[in-house]
Amino acid sequence: MSKRSRVEVKGFEARFYDELLWLVTLGGYQRLLRAAVAQMDLQPHESLLDLGSGTGYVACLIAPRVGPQGRVLGLDIGQEMLRQARVRCKGFRNTEFRNERIDEPLAYHEEFDKVFISFVLHGFEQPQREDIIKNAYRTLKPGGQFFILDYSKFALDGAPFLVKLLFKTIECELAQEFIQLDLKEMLRAAGFSEFQAWPLGGRYIRLLAAGKSQPQSP
Q1: H or E, element range at 86
Q2: Cα 81 vs. chain centroid, distance in angstroms?
Q3: Mind listing the domains of the chain with CATH numbers?
Q4: Least confident piece of the model among 63-67, 98-102, 200-204
Q5: Quick one: pLDDT at residue 3?
Q6: What pLDDT sits at residue 20?
Q7: Distance (Å, rounded) from C-alpha 100 to C-alpha 32?
Q8: Separation of alpha carbons 166 and 179, rounded Å
Q9: In this predicted model, which residue has the larger pLDDT, 8 or 88?
Q10: DSSP-assigned states of every residue in 189-218
């Protein structure tokens, strides 16, 4: 993991991750996650891969929507985060959490209807971001969708004081680079198309969906 990244959460921050985020955002982060899940048009029987699944908050929101015949697989590298996720989602038999790096090749091939990642992609160096996007494409079934909840592209210099303060005090240096990137172009380069976007935090946070096209009929 890059020294500039804050993606891997450990120690006190990991043990009280949800509580700290709730305090820092006054519950805004959890509202964002619920709003994102509501936009994903989840259907019974669907399978979803959660990249950087953290404490399992999103997995537990998705599990009842895809039903007992559906599947939610969460991947994370934090042992404390995985422990909390397994406890939180123990009432859902359709959830599973594994200790796997999302920036290294994954063994899943066209297994999932949807892939989700939330405020994780910005915390990686650019080569690793591209690897994560490739993993998402490879693991999706044709016709599937990749959902990214993260910062939009914007100029930090022109942002309000509170946004600047967030990036200067809490966010890593990599996040400042991320908001300058053309994420859609990165996704196109990996084979994605059919984009949709929903602003969930003014002009600064969005849910971006990218589709994996069905193969053309001969």
Answers
A1: helix 79-88
A2: 15
A3: 11-101+108-191 (3.40.50.150)
A4: 200-204
A5: 66
A6: 84
A7: 25
A8: 13
A9: 88
A10: HTT-EEEEEEEEETBTEEEEEEE-PPPPP-
Q: Cα-flanking dihedrals φ and ψ of residue 64, to 5°?
A: -70, -25
Distance CA 15, CA 3 (A): 21
Residue type, 116: F
What is the amino acid identity at position 78? Answer: G
Per-residue pLDDT for 85 more than 70? yes
Give me the sheet containing 47-51, strands edge to edge. 95-99, 71-76, 47-51, 112-118, 140-151, 205-211, 193-201
> What does the angle CA 49 – CA 109 – CA 81 come to, to the nearest 5 degrees?
30
pTM exceeds 0.90, yes or no: yes
CB atoms within 10 A of CB 85: 25
Q: Which residues are CB-contacts of 61 (< 8 A; sequence separation ≥ 6)?
A: 33, 34, 37
Higher pLDDT, 5 or 21: 21
Amino acid at 28: G
